[in-house]
């Protein structure tokens, strides 16, 4: 499962959010200090998440079938 690794710049808390959970969220809030990611940045992350999920679902990242594409790993 792909995930984003975050580090809050207010309190230095590190936390992960899996893609499947990211798509269900309405905002991103630090679990330690409640610092909130700005809405415009959060919306960009949702767009990125959806694009990566669609790319992986398409099977285009399979290097054996599509040697001109790239395999990618996101932690």
Fold and architecture overview:
The chain has 75 residues and is an alpha+beta fold. The chain has 2 helices and 2 strands, in the order ββαα. The chain has helices at residues 19-22, 39-58; strands at 3-7, 14-18. Strand 1 and strand 2 form a beta hairpin. The longest helix has 20 residues, at 39-58. The model has no long low-confidence stretch (mean pLDDT 87).
Q: Which ranges are low-confidence, i.e. pLDDT below 50, for 5 or more consecutive residues?
A: none
Number of strands: 2
Question: What structural class results from the helix and strand content?
Answer: alpha+beta
The secondary-structure element order is: EEHH
C-alpha geometry: elongated
Mean pLDDT figure: 87
């Amino acid at each position: 499962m792909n995930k984003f690794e975050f580090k809050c710049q207010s309190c230095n808390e590190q936390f992960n959010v899996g893609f499947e959970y990211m798509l269900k969220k309405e905002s991103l809030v630090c679990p330690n200090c409640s610092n909130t990611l700005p809405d415009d940045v959060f919306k960009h992350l949702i767009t990125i998440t959806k694009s990566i999920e669609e790319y992986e679902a398409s099977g285009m990242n399979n290097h054996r079938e599509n040697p001109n594409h790239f395999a990618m790993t996101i932690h």
